[in-house]
Amino acid sequence: MHDRGRLMKLTDVSLTLGQKTLLEQISMQVDKGEVVTIIGPNGAGKTTLIRVALGLLRPSRGTVEKKPDIAIGYMPQRLHLDPTFPLSVKRFLALAGKGQAERALSLLEEVGAAYVYDSSLQSLSGGELQRVLLARALMREPDLLVLDEPVQGVDVHGQVELYQLITRIRDQRQCGVLMVSHDLHLVMAATDRVVCLNRHICCSGSPESVTADPAYLKLFGPLAVQHLAVYTHDRTHRHDSCLGGKERTHAR
User: pLDDT per residue over 5-62, tens digit each?
Assistant: First the structure.
């Protein structure tokens, strides 16, 4: 019987194309109301895993199970725009499906971008474009949001705001979120569970347990600890933190 809280489950998923193994024995799941973040270096297979989860790629071995009649909202890593083809935000969201035009403005309000409603897509900043793409992913009232690098092309301050927005959407809608990120130090406050990927799962668990795992430290190198100190400062909003046993005071 399907677990009512489970939205998606991957069991022993492997993918081989030609002679190259892209994914090896991946087992994981996403539950309702949970944010699961896949991290890993370039070439680790993060986007490939997302495509397998969405059914865009068929695994060589293993199974992908989804909740019956699940609605999935997908936010791709990049949107390639022809600079010579004018397309407004309003029109872009209306293209998501019949009857969606009237919902576009309310969804833009939800993601904090109502002011770009009549703007052209080509004129948007990186953060504005990502918010529009997030609004489009919400069109289907998804049970599961799948976000591939949702802060792509956004500065650090904007990244923090987007992760906070994703958390609010999860809290308000009680949907599950499966998200891909390069960096754990910024996304830690916005995730419940981390899957550290390098073609296979190196480690997984809560952010705190993953960052203490030798496999994580080996994969991301000595800068990983330094980055986590930055994360601690940002999350607590305090102007002091302990780095190497010494208290630092930050000037206001």
Answer: 899 999 999 999 988 999 999 999 999 999 999 998 888 999 999 999 999 999 999 9
What b/e sequence results for 94-125 when a residue is b if at least 16 CB atoms lie within 10 Å of its CB, and e otherwise?
bebeeeeeebbbebbebbbbbebeeebbeebe
Q: What are phi and psi of 90, to 5 degrees?
A: -55, -45
**Residue burial 165-197, b: 16+ Cβ < 10 Å; e: rest:** bbbebbeebebbbbbbbbebbbbbbbbbbbbbb
Who's near 121: CB < 8 A, 6+ residues apart? 79, 81, 87, 88, 89, 92, 129, 132
Looking up tokens 């699940």 gives 70
Read off the pLDDT of residues 120-147 as tens digits, 9 standing for 90 and up. Answer: 998 899 899 999 999 999 998 999 999 9
Please tell me the distance from the alpha carbon of residue 205 to that of residue 106, in angstroms, as a whole number.
Answer: 35
Tokens coding 228: 């986590």
Q: Give the domains, in start order, of the chain with CATH numbers.
A: 1-71+142-216 (3.40.50.300), 80-140 (no CATH)
Count each helix (H run) and each strand (E run) in the chain, helices first: 9, 11
Residues 6+ apart with CB under 8 A from 39: 46, 180, 181, 182, 183, 184, 187, 194, 195, 196, 197
pTM of the entire predicted model: 0.84
Tokens of 46: 């993060």
